[in-house]
Specification:
CATH topology: Double-stranded beta-helix
Number of strands: 18
CATH architecture: 4-Layer Sandwich
Number of domains: 1
Order of helices and strands: EEEEEHEEEEEEHEEEEEHEEH
Distance between the termini: 60 Å
Strand content: over 45%
Radius of gyration: 19 Å
């Protein structure tokens, strides 16, 4: 499978090309933009009811996913996330896995496994999702975010990232969720909780987050007066 990123980092889209019949791309519900008419589409609960339910309830992904399968070499498909922002391509080779923040999954080759991983009770209270989506196997994986995506290589000294800016990270990293400062900064400073990473691996973070945008726009929203 070949792919090309288009219109990144502001309005990212993936153009994937199939090399042979039978190659397939699993796409998040609603993310397909266009495709050759010969590409077959099948929408189902990938992995059965149990796996689909875990991804939906615990990982924040769609209950159903669409699988697009080539019927001839050279066929193409375009996929894009719902929100404006960047797309991160990762080429998994079976030697490592990636944990994605809830909602960051866009698409992956059918040879990539998707499952959920316990994020810790404090992950639930942080509002970043009870579970993370674990991706491993072999083939291309595409993640997306609102805003651009910036990569950081985490070393022995560790690293701290705001929970709402995390897109994903490699499985070699250990993490704990903690407050920023004391209770004053938690309730009054607008900072909330952060993830403290340790170990060796790579972290991908977004340059924007939707919650901050919503908070910025809230004072300007129109409110209809009640008579």
């Amino acid at each position: 499978m070949r792919y090309e990123l288009l219109d990144t980092p502001d309005f990212g889209m993936v153009r994937a090309g199939f090399d042979q019949p039978g190659e397939a791309l699993v796409v998040e519900s609603g993310a397909m933009v266009a495709r050759d008419s010969g590409v077959q589409m099948k929408t189902a609960m990938r992995g059965g009811l149990g796996s689909a339910l875990k991804r939906k309830v615990l990982g924040g992904e769609s209950f159903f996913q669409s699988t697009f399968t080539a019927t001839a070499p050279g066929q193409q498909i375009y996929v894009a996330p719902g929100a404006e922002g960047d797309v991160l391509p990762l080429e998994l080779d079976g030697s490592y896995g990636v944990l994605l923040h809830s909602g960051a999954f866009l698409a992956a080759a059918s040879t990539v496994n998707l499952d959920t991983k316990w994020g810790g009770a404090r992950g639930f209270f942080s509002g970043t999702g009870f579970f993370l989506l674990r991706c491993d196997g072999v083939g291309p994986l595409f993640a997306s975010s609102y805003g651009g995506i910036h990569a950081v290589d985490v070393g022995p000294e560790g690293y701290i990232c705001d929970n709402h800016h995390i897109v994903g990270f490699t499985q070699g990293l250990r993490y704990t969720v903690t407050k920023v400062g004391g209770l004053g900064s938690f309730f009054l400073g607008g900072e909330g909780l952060v993830c403290r990473f340790e170990g060796q691996g790579r972290l991908w973070m977004s340059t924007r987050n939707g919650r901050s945008l919503a908070a910025f726009l809230h004072p300007y929203r129109r409110v209809q007066a009640k008579n």
